[in-house]
Each structure stands twice: as structure tokens, then as C-alpha cells.
Amino acid sequence: MVEHHTVAGGHRTCHVGGTTVHKSKTVTPAGDPDQKKQYAWHRHPALIAAIPAVFALIGSILTIVLGQSGVLPAAINPAPPRTTILSTTTATATTTATSTVTETVTETPVAQITGPGSSSTPQTLSPGTLAITIRMGASGRIGPGEYRAGSLPTASAQVLDETGNYPATGCYPTWVLKRGSVVIKTARGESCGQSFYLSRDSLEVRGVYSLTVSVVTEAGAKGTKTEDFKVS
Asked: Whole-angstrom Cα distance, residue 229 to residue 184?
């Protein structure tokens, strides 16, 4: 077995047995130092050390953005969405009004009514006027100013002149009974001492009635009085 070696040529020949084997090896010459620096900048230790910090910063920014968008759960959200607070202002206005009202009441003297033929203190009445009071009977009365339908109460008039006495001259009453605006019965008397009698059908209909008596005397004095009552 014979081997031939060629060094520095990059070519080597080997004879093994009767066989010749050629082997070639390319040797790369040493590169340019500037070219090595050009391709080795990314291997700088400071740059490699800064890579984790850059990724951590990017992760923090993404976490804040997602947190403000409300994507992250509240338990791990470092930057919750902004909350808008509305301020409500309530204004209370208090107004105090003071009003003073002065009312003057003038009382008109009321004439003292006495029975017929009595001589009491003279009434405060204008000359030629009469003070009249209607007195309704108690038959069929079921309450103050209220009568049962179909009842037959009587009515009488007490008449006094300006002196507070029963008229000395002739006294003539005229009676008018109405239900609303409907006239039910009328009557005229020869003396103010006579009573007014209702008919059987006068108060058959329920409603509000009015009884009016108008009086005139021989001396020319006049007066009118109306009494309202209810029929149930």
C-alpha cells in the first residue's frame, strides 16, 4: 500500500492496494477582519442583554392598552377603563311671601223680632219696610229644614213694622210655593195672622222647595221673605 500526500496544494493522493484514491480539501483562507466585524454586530453582548428589556416594554404597553379596552379581567387589569363621573347640582330656591290682609267687617244691626201685639224696643228698620219671619210647622219634619214626601206642614208669617210692632193697619200676605222654578201653589190672606196650608199633593215630589211670602200694609209698608226646605 502506497500513500502520496500533497500539502498546501489542497490535493491528496492515496494508493491503497492497487487502487488509487484522490481526495481534495479546500482550505478557506483567513478572512478580512473588517468583514468579520460587519457580520458580527448582532452578536454584541450589550445588544443581546437589551433584548429581554425590549420584549418586557412591549408586553407592558400591550397590557395597558388591553386593560383600558376592558379586555383583561378586573383582577389582573393594571389599567382599568376610564370612568366618567357625572356631577349633578341641585338648586333649591326658597321663596318667602308675606302678605298682610286687613279686613274691615261692618255689622248691620239685626232687628229684635217679637210676637204680634208686643211693644218692645223699636226696630232699626227703614220707614215703610217690614221685618218678616216664616215659621214652618213640625208635621212631617224629619230633620232641620227637611220634610217627608207627602207631609202637610202649615206655615205662618210673623210681621213687624219699623217700630218693632205688629202693623196697626191692615196687613195682607201673598204666599207662593215653588219646587225649583215650578210654581206648586199660591194663596192670599186677609190678615198676616192667617196660616198658609199646603195641599195633599204639594210635597209629593222629592226635591228642594221654596216658600215665599210678600206682605203689604194699608200704610204702604212692604216686605218679602223666602224660606227654603228639602223634601225627601
From this structure: 14
